[in-house]
Write a structure and sequence with these properties.
The chain has 290 residues and is mainly alpha-helical. The protein has two domains: 2-96, no CATH class; 126-289, Glutaredoxin. Helices cover 40% and strands 7% of the residues. The chain contains eight helices and five strands, in the order ααααβααβββαβα.
Length: 290
Amino acid sequence: MEIAFALKFLSNVDLAYHWNWFDREIFLSIWIALGVLLGLYLLGKIRFSHDSVTDYVSVPRFFLSVIVFAFVFYMIPGLWGAPLKSISAFLPPMATQDFDLSQIPDGGNNPNGAAPKQSSLVKKYEGNYTRIKTRGLDAWYDYDQALQVSKELHKPIMIDFTGFNCVNCRKMEANVWSDPEVFKRLKNDYVLLQLVVDDKAALDPADYFTSTYSGKKITTLGGKWSDLEASRFNANSQPFYVLLDSDGNMLADKNGKTIPPSPADYDVNSYLKFLDSGITAYQSAQQGKK
């Protein structure tokens, strides 16, 4: 069990530093193997030098072994892309899965069957985030580019302040973003801007700056986005979702009240209301400009 949990934290470091050691199925294979060994140990089939010989398996050990083997059987379909929602927050992201038989959620396309319009811009930093991409969503990773794309496509922006090591982020993506209605809105109605606050990739030395918020010298890409979240939105937790218009202003409802950012919200209906409020506010603002 200690090895299994140590592997989880090593996987986090692997993502942040872009080592690319642990794909999801490799991680699951190791956990499955450890689970089998633990189950056999509980049944007395494996003994170490310090263990005493037992003539029978006690009832508690038997039921513990049943739980362990049940967990092992639960993880096996994950090798073929099963979402494993109950433990998805602890696993490497689905984007690291090489062999995936699962399907993109229904509602990925527009009602008329046409794919949503895409921008022709070349995405900055995209190579850093192939391992945490949500399949089927066209995310952007640079704030200035997202503003440009928003103006081009006439869509509001949703900033997703996220992280490689963010357990709640993975849980939101697996349990909420996978809902067909949520997925449809993120794909068709928003410019999705994912800013990874713990990315250790170095900025170009010409882009180093000293934060006016913390006074620290910012030298990494993650530090840049973390400073943006803290200095502009007074937050430092992830996930943190902010709705903006094409000029970078926070969206406001029909009464002029700013739509507050949302933390992790595992209630699909509540999260849908949040997304819909932004879509409505943006469309109203666009009509007001005509």
